[in-house]
Structures are given as structure tokens and as C-alpha cells.
Amino acid sequence: MVLVFLQAVAVAVIKKSTIALVALYVIINNQSHAAVLAEDRIDVLYHNYDGGGITIDGPSVLVRKSIGNTTSISANYYIDSISSASIDAITQASSYNEKRTQKSISIDYLYDKSIMSYSYTNSTENDFEAVTHSFNISQETFGGLSTISLGYSAGNNHISKSTDNIFSQNADTKDYRLSLSQVFTKNFLMGLTYEVITDEGFLNNPYRQVRYISPSDPNATIFQDEKYPKTRTSNATSINFRYYLPYRAAVYGGYRYFTDTWDIEADTFDIGYVHPYQNNWIFDVSLRFYSQTRASFFSSLFPFVDAQNYLASDKELSTFSSNAISAGATYSIKKEKLSFFEKGTLNFYLDRFSYNYDDFLDTTVTGITPGTEPAYKFSANVIRFYLSLWF
Amino acid sequence: MYINKITFHSLSAILFILFTLVSANSSANETSVEAPNFTLKSNNTKNIKLSELRGQVVLINFWASWCGPCRQEMPELNKLYAKYKDLGFTIMGVNVEENPTEALKIIKDDKINFPILFDSENKVSQLYEVTAMPTSVLVSRSGHIRYIHRAYKPDDIEKYKKWVKELIRE
Amino acid sequence: MKRSLFLFFFIIVNSGCSAEPWVKPYERAHLADPIMSFDRDPVSSAYIEHVHDTREGARGAGISSGGGCGCN
């Protein structure tokens, strides 16, 4: 038995198979205790985003059920119903109503102290389809005080154009995640995550255009299609904490640093407080501060046609900051009203976002010299209303 | 000092094997150590001392209301208790929580019949070196620890049944 | 070389399985409380992360997992 194991390790080392070695280690390391799978539950959520001329709403239903002792399956059905007269739509005269449907299924397998997961996600709109495969392994160590997780996702997007039957493009995404969470004391928990995402292919929006100053009239602009690099690699590092307060409440927060090959740098801070009230209420309040610098090829106005190799005017690639406040309440439904469910909650969250752009201009303001429009800003309200039932 | 690539990889492999073997363990231990004595308050207002139960087979179960697998285990232990209590078997459900409120709720809701003890200062948990939740310790009629079972998965109750039957026959 | 270093790191971290945890399994009442979960309602946090990702240039390194009751 030991000899077979030695041979297996030798082969794995020689063939440079790190994954095999890690798997072997995990399998052999038959500690006395194991981890636990997530609880069986069903969640029915209604979401509503309203801001900047767009309303997007729809349901998200999530069901999770364990099968035997070692497996848990979950499935999610999600819809975004978009009705838009956003700044992009107004200035480029293409308001629209659209629907995006996303379905995903995942399976978790518990082996001793490790949980291995696979998930498949498919997202479709009338001119966009995305398929993603994700793998994850997470393991508890140090007597359950540390959890280390490794994840990998591969996705493929197919982009078409509702105004052009011949148009057909692809993009591929690869996503690598490493995360470590650590229990420091009976009341204090921290998490550290590192994620690298690389995209390759057609990465822009086929409908969106940029504007440049007309050569014949400095007060007029002409549109041309946006042009993005064919690759993008980004990395993000985040640190999070959660602290239990003696009277039963929790304070939490985190910071994320992001940077990518398009020159975007972003900082995200968040801080929150959870407060249970009496026996059946939980209140949650949080603040989020986000700021980013623009992509190297972003501009709200270009001086002439093909002014750069790459051209973008998308507000998501501009210099801006966004602050949000979120407040939510969770109500525990009394056991008598639950029939065969073990536990149930009714939840409501309201988030208010305010976006302030530095160099993305409000081109709905007309009659002035192009390039002197005021910087754009808008607010949005987001509602989450959901019922969760455990069985 | 230049380390040859092959030596380095070989050393990695050897160290890897050593660490693996050192860390490996098993989920159930068979021992023959005398069960450390203790006295705890119980849920029927009188104190219970382990040594007073000598002559019976005792299953000491460490549990908490916040522990999912413990909650799954409780009704099964209740059935086990009902089945073998007249043959010289008893269970001591040692609750490890500072505040017994949630535990008392569970005992009432699940109609638990076996004695529940409150180890609110975790002295007995430390004494028994509890390294997993839940942990079940099987003590023979002579007061020796014969089996320790860490963690709980739905079919583990069969293992307990087997051990109880074995220890009752002694 | 990098791979062997990764394995060393992985081994050290995992050998901690045999190390004595300073927060005992029976002391995890607070950590097991749902309010201490990094992700109490995944359907809700997935949605709000999607709201962030689609309007911002940054992406990734979202919700952590871990802590909890440490049972089994």
C-alpha cells in the first residue's frame, strides 16, 4: 500500500502534475473530521434596479438540495428584464426593451475536509450568449480555523447584432481564484482573496460608438465604432473581516484593489453593521465607496477620426466614483406558519447608488461646444425582496 | 550552494510523503484509558457524577445548538437511549454552550429523554480534549474509554449501535 | 521550482491539520451564528455583485467563504 503510494507520488512529481499531487494529498490526508455542505434551501428573489434612465427587474430563484451525505446540488434561474432610455441609448438614439435569461446548475462534492464543486452557467439575450464552466476546491485546515480555496472558470461569449444578421464574434474568458479565510479569535474572522481574469476576443459592445470632432465644423461631432484591444488581463486582491460584538451584533468591512492591462485602477471600501433585534429581526446597514481611473484609451471626445489605436467612450471605462448606502431587514417567520420547512425568512434590502463621473460627459446637453458638456452623474435605487425557506 | 534540480524535486517528494503520513489520522479511536471523572449540573436539577454511573455503559456526547450535525444526531441518540436504557446503557448529553437557552429549546422540541448536562465553562470539553463537534465517547461498565467518534454523518448511528451492543455484553 | 515552492506552502498550511487550534471546536458559537457568515444569502449577494460588476470597470475578488461552525 505504501509502495503503491510512493510510486504514485514519484510519477506525479516526475510528470509535474501539481493537481495530481494536491489531490493525492487531500485524499490521503484522512483526518478525523470533515467539513459541512451548505444547507438545503429555496430562495425566491425579486430584484429591481432603477437609475440613469434604465429599469431592470426580474426574479432570481435558487434551490439547493443535498443528496446523500456527500453531494449537494443547486440550480438558479435568473432574469433581467431591461427597459432602457439610458444615456448611451438616448445619445445614440436606440432605446430598447430586452430580456436576459441566465440558468446555472452546480454540484458540490464533500470528501473529508474538502468540498469540490463544478458549475455550469448559460446566459442568453437576443444578441449575446455566454457559457461558463467553473471548478472550485475548498479545504478546511488548522483544526477548521483556516479555509483555503482554489477556483478556475472558463467562459465563452458569442456576440451577435440584432441590426446585422452577418455579424458574429467571440470572446473567451479565463478566471483564476485563490482565497484564504482565517479564524483569529472566537469573535474575529478574516478573508483574503486574489483573482486574475483574462479575456480574449471581441471585448466591446457592437452597437456603441465614440465621437470625434468633425473636420469641417468644430462644433459638430461624427460617430465611429468603438475599438477595443483584443485582450484584457486584470487582477484583484481583497481583504475582508467580520467581528462579533458581545451583545450579539457584527461589524464587517473590506477593501479591494484592482488593476488591469487597460490601465484601470480601482479601490473599493465597504463597511457594515448587522444588528439582530428581539428574536426575529436582523437589520443590516452598509456603506460602499468605489473609485476608478480611466482606461488608457478612454475619452468622451476624440479630436479626429481614428485618433488612437483603441477608442472607447463607455462610462464604465472612465474616471469616476460611486458611493452606495445599503439598508436591509430580515424577518424570521414563526415556525408554526412554516408547515414542513424548518426555517424561513422574509428579506428586504434597499441600496442607493450615486455615480459621479470625472471625464465621461453628459452629451444629452446640446447646443454647446463639444467637449465642454458637464460631467455626467446619476443615482440609482436597487431593491432586493426575497423569501428564503430552509428544509 | 547550488541545489541540483533532481535532488530538489526528490526532496520535495520525500517531505511531501512524510508530512502526509504524519498528518493522517482516523475518525474513530479504540482505546482503553480510564474515563476522567467529572460532575456537572443536569437538566433535572440534580448534579450527575460520571463515577456514579460505573456498572453502566455510558455514551458521553458533546453537542451544541449551533452545530448542524449535532442537531441531526440528537433524535438518533434519543432512539438509541430508548432501545438500550433498560440493558444498562445511558447517554450523557454534554452541552458546551455558555448560555443554555437554545439547548433547552431543542431538548423540549425534540423531546429528548436522556440526561443533558451543562458544561458552560468548557471544563469537561477540555478534560476530554474535544477536537470536533460533535464528539461521542463510549465508556465501558468498568469506566474505561473504549471508543471515541468525532463528527457525525447520518449513518454513524449504526456504528454507535454496534459499540453499545458490544459493551453491554461485557 | 515555482511548483515545488507552491507544494511546500500547501504542505505547511495543510500540516496545520495536526496543529492545536487555538479556538476550540466547542468555542465556535459566535462564529456559527448566521450574522457572522460572510455570505448569509447567496442569491442576494450574487445579484448585488452583478449590479456592481456591470457598472464598474473592476471585477473579481468578491465574497469570501469560511468561518462557520467548523463541525465534522
Notes on the protein architecture:
The complex is a heterotrimer of chains A (391), B (170) and C (72). Chain A folds into 2 domains: 1-30; 31-390, Beta Barrel (Porin), CATH 2.40.160.40. Chain A is globular. Chain A has a 16-stranded antiparallel barrel with strand order 1-2-3-4-5-6-7-8-9-12-13-14-15-16-17-18. A two-stranded antiparallel ribbon of chain A has the order 10-11. Chain A has helices at 2-14, 18-28, 87-91; strands at 41-51, 54-67, 71-84, 96-111, 114-125, 128-141, 146-161, 164-185, 188-201, 209-213, 221-225, 231-245, 249-260, 265-277, 281-292, 320-332, 343-361, 375-390. Helices cover 7% and strands 62% of the residues of chain A. Chain A contains 3 helices and 18 strands. Chain B is globular, with a radius of gyration of 20 Å. With 170 residues, chain B is of the alpha+beta class. Chain B has one domain (27-168): Glutaredoxin (3-Layer(aba) Sandwich). In chain B, strand 4 (57-63), helix 2 (68-84) and strand 5 form a beta-alpha-beta unit. Chain C is mainly alpha-helical. Chain C has a domain at 23-54. Chain C is built from 3 helices and no strands. The longest helix of chain C has 14 residues, at 2-15. The chains are: A mainly beta (391), B alpha+beta (170), C mainly alpha (72). Chains in contact: A-B, A-C, B-C. The interface between A and B is medium-sized, with 19 and 21 residues.
List keywords for this structure.
heterotrimer; A: 391 residues; mainly beta; Porin; 2 domains; 16-stranded antiparallel β-barrel; two-stranded antiparallel sheet; 7% helix; globular; B: 170 residues; alpha+beta; Glutaredoxin; eight-stranded mixed beta sheet; 5 helices; 8 strands; 37% helix
**Could you tell me the strand content of chain B as a percent range?**
25-35%
Could you state the oligomeric state of the chains shown?
Answer: heterotrimer
Query: Which term fits the overall shape of chain C?
Result: flat
Across the major sheet of chain B, the strand order is: 1-8-7-4-5-6-2-3
Low-confidence stretches of chain B: 21-27
What is this entry, summarized?
With 170 residues, chain B is α+β, with helices and mostly antiparallel strands. Chain B is 37% helix and 25% strand.
How are the elements arranged and paired?
The complex is a heterotrimer of chains A (391), B (170) and C (72).
Chain A: H1 2-14, H2 18-28, E1 41-51, E2 54-67, E3 71-84, H3 87-91, E4 96-111, E5 114-125, E6 128-141, E7 146-161, E8 164-185, E9 188-201, E10 209-213, E11 221-225, E12 231-245, E13 249-260, E14 265-277, E15 281-292, E16 320-332, E17 343-361, E18 375-390
Antiparallel strand pairs in A: 1-2, 1-18, 2-3, 3-4, 4-5, 5-6, 6-7, 7-8, 8-9, 9-12, 10-11, 12-13, 13-14, 14-15, 15-16, 16-17, 17-18
Chain B: H1 5-23, E1 28-34, E2 39-42, E3 47-49, E4 57-63, H2 68-84, E5 89-95, H3 101-109, E6 116-118, H4 123-127, E7 135-139, E8 144-150, H5 156-168
Parallel strand pairs in B: 4-5, 5-6
Antiparallel strand pairs in B: 1-8, 2-3, 2-6, 4-7, 7-8
Chain C: H1 2-15, H2 29-32, H3 42-55
